[in-house]
Structures are given as C-alpha cells and as structure tokens.
C-alpha cells in the first residue's frame, strides 16, 4: 500500500513516485497507538509544522538545495533564478519559473491545470464511489462548511491536484476570471500524500484550507481551494481580489511542504480531457504541469 503509481502525462508511462520522507509517512500513518499519538502531536497542532517551516528559512538550510536537486532530478533550466542564488531552502522551494517553461494552453473556453502536480478528475462528485480507495469519499459539506454551497456543487465536477515537495509550488488561475476575497477555514495539517489519504480521505475536508470564488464567463463560478498539509509553513495569496485575472496568472504559493488544490465546477460546465479522465477512472493520478489543458467548457 505504500507504493504510489502515477501516469506521466508527457510520456504516457506509469511510474512509481519517489516520495520525500517515505519512511516517516509510512510509520506515522500506521494503525497502532504510537503512530496515533504522533499524529495527534505533530499534525493536529500547527506548532510543529510552523517550526519545521521556519527552519527552512534559515541560512543554514541552503546546504540542502544541491542534494535535493540531485536526488529528485529537478530541472534547473526552468528556474527564473540560478540555484545558487537562493539564500535558504524555502526560497528555493517557492522559486519562480521562466514564463517559457510553462506555456498556457490557448482558448477562452479551455481551462488549464492550475499547478504542477498529480491530478485526479471527477465528472460528477455524487456518482463517484471513491476517490483513491473504493468506498472512501470525503464530505463536501465538511470541506466547504456551507450547506447551501455544498448542495450547489453536489453533482458538480472536481479536480484534485497533489503537490509533492519536489514540485514547483506556485499556483495559478485555471481560466480567465474575477476572483473573490479568500475565505480561510482552520484545521489540522495532516499529510495529503496517498499513504495518509488511503487511511482517511476526510483529511482533505478537515485540513487547514482557503476558498476563493472565481467568477468566469464560460465555467460559471469555480471554487478554488488551497489545502495545507504537514510541514507547510503557510498559504500565501499574491493576487488582487475583485480584479480580472488572465488564465495562467499567479494566484499564490505554498511555503515548504506537500500540499493540495481542489477545484469545484458547477454541474455540467466542464468536459475534462480524455487522458485525465481515463487515468482517474483507474484511480491513477496524472503528473501534469501548470498551463496544460484541463478541459473544455460546456454550454450551461
């Protein structure tokens, strides 16, 4: 159960993910009293995640950058700034990329992937028997903390994007839109790695999260939800609320750690690309890059 297989969108091959902190995650999410106690100590209170995140901002953390790049084969040619220019590991982690490294898929009625990450998509949330494990779903009302909003999106379409520590950690708008102010919802900081989600899918509906309403011409109102995770220092917003934003424009970024994004579309407003749907039906994540095609708008 600890092995994580995904589809590489570029090569179409199934690959096994090299997980940052794999041994720690396997132990932490075992079903025994010690693991339960450690989860209660390290994941529920924000103190340890904030402390670990603060350590990545110290000058001494710079020495971790080169080994990390080599170990996870991070493509430094995409970086806007050279690797040796980052004063701390967190500065490397929240790096910007050259605009040419992430071209934006054309078309006003086409939505794009909002971040680099591993994707699952679902046409109709209500019809899905389970997202990662059969029969294990999370509660939309718990996620949104708004019964009326949960009812509106109950039969809507959902995108789940999991960002691993090795990924580019800035996130972007999936389509032309006018975003609202953010609504923060406090919660714990459990891991969003499948090792943890296979134990408890409700993590996605309980973790600290931020919700933004995107008003769009072609997709109705899209909910953009950033979800924190273990050792994520914080979720940062860099956009201007109530101001029109272009598709692919930066919305914000995560400080150090794994994290997750969820997009919720109103019912029957998007047709996802066939490759994302095919992999998701097999409960396989697809590794994609920000700016690649997510799907086409359907007429309301």
Please tell me about this protein's structure:
The protein has ten helices and 16 strands. It has one domain. The longest helix has 10 residues, at 33-42. The strands form three sheets. Strands 1, 2, 4, 5, 7, 8, 9, 10, 13 and 15 form a ten-stranded mixed sheet that branches. The protein has a three-stranded antiparallel sheet with strand order 3-16-14. A three-stranded antiparallel sheet has the order 6-12-11, with no helix packed on it. The chain is an alpha+beta fold. The chain is 22% helix and 24% strand. It has helices at 22-28, 33-42, 47-55, 65-72, 89-93, 140-144, 147-152, 194-197, 203-206, 274-281, and strands spanning 5-8, 14-16, 110-112, 117-122, 157-163, 170-172, 178-179, 183-185, 209-215, 221-227, 235-237, 250-254, 259-265, 270-272, 285-288, 293-297.
Main traits of this protein?
alpha+beta, 300 residues, three-stranded antiparallel β-sheet, ten-stranded mixed β-sheet
**What is the domain tally?**
1
Question: What class would the helix/strand composition place it in?
Answer: alpha+beta
Q: What would you report as the Rg, rounded to the nearest angstrom?
A: 18 Å
**How many strands, which pairing sense, and closed or not: the largest β-sheet?**
10 strands, mixed
Mean pLDDT level? 84
Query: Into which percentage range does the β-strand content fall?
Result: 15-25%
Number of helices: 10
- Spans of at least 5 consecutive residues whose pLDDT stays below 50 are none
Q: What is the general shape?
A: globular
Percent of residues in helices comes to 10-25%
Order of helices and strands: EEHHHHHEEHHEEEEHHEEEEEEHEE
């Amino acid at each position: 159960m600890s092995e994580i297989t995904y589809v590489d969108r570029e090569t179409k091959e199934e690959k096994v993910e090299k997980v940052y902190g794999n041994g720690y995650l396997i132990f932490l999410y075992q079903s025994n009293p010690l693991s339960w106690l450690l989860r209660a100590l390290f994941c529920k209170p924000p103190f340890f995640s904030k402390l670990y995140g603060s350590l990545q901002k110290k000058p001494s953390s710079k020495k971790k950058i080169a080994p990390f790049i080599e170990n996870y084969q991070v493509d430094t040619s995409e970086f806007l700034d050279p690797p040796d220019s980052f004063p701390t590991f967190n500065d490397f982690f929240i790096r910007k990329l050259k605009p040419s490294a992430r071209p934006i898929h054309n078309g006003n009625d086409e939505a794009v992937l909002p971040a680099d990450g591993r994707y699952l998509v679902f046409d109709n949330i209500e019809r899905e028997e389970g997202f990662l494990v059969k029969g294990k779903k999370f509660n939309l009302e718990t996620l949104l903390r708004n019964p009326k909003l949960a009812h509106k999106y109950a039969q809507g379409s959902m995108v789940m994007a999991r960002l691993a520590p090795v990924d580019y950690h800035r996130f972007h708008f999936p389509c032309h839109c006018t975003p609202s102010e953010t609504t923060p919802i406090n919660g714990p900081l459990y891991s969003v790695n499948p090792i943890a989600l296979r134990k408890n899918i409700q993590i996605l509906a309980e973790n600290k999260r931020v919700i933004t309403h995107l008003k769009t011409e072609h997709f109705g109102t899209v909910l953009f939800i950033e979800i924190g995770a273990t050792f994520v220092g914080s979720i940062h917003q860099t956009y201007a609320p109530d101001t029109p934003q272009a598709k692919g424009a930066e919305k914000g970024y995560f400080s150090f750690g794994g994290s997750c994004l969820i997009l919720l579309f109103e019912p029957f407003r998007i047709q996802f690309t066939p490759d994302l749907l095919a992999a998701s039906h097999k409960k396989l994540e697809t590794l994609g890059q920000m700016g690649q095609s997510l799907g086409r708008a359907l007429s309301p």
